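Journal club side-thread
Mid-discussion, someone asked how the predicted structure for our own chain would compare to the paper's figures. Pasting it here so we can look after the session.
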Amino acid sequence: MATETQDELRTEPADKLFAASISQDAGFLLAKLHAFGSVLNNRALAEFGLKERSYSVLALANSGLEPTQREMAEFLSLDPSQIVALIDELEKRGLVIRAPGRQDRRAKTVSATDEGAAAFRLAEAAARRAESAALAALSAAEVDGLKDLLRKALWGPGA
């Protein structure tokens, strides 16, 4: 699968717009990078019948951490009803299963099936290629630093 490069997808605003104060706003820049990355991710994941949100659920189901539906919703900043719909779709495809929680049987944990683990490995490789394309202007050290800073901003020092 050919992944489009950052330069092929990036649209350059008129030079004068770089002077706008919003171009210094972290929220705007994060949203803009996310939108750009989402296009690449969704294109890369399409061959697996996934989009970013369903891929994220499948990734957590493959983590070995036995997350509950509620934990997934909180971690992914999604409404619980959205998580249920995503899990329903993945479950119908045989990629994940729900089970009663070990500590609270009313809570449903979500795990990948063997088919889900195999699908995730392939989708993860495609997602990594899309990430590399989205961040192609950065060195490997800069990408690592960016990820460290984002984790710190989200979850504090030591995250």
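Post-session note: The first helix runs from residue 6 to 9.
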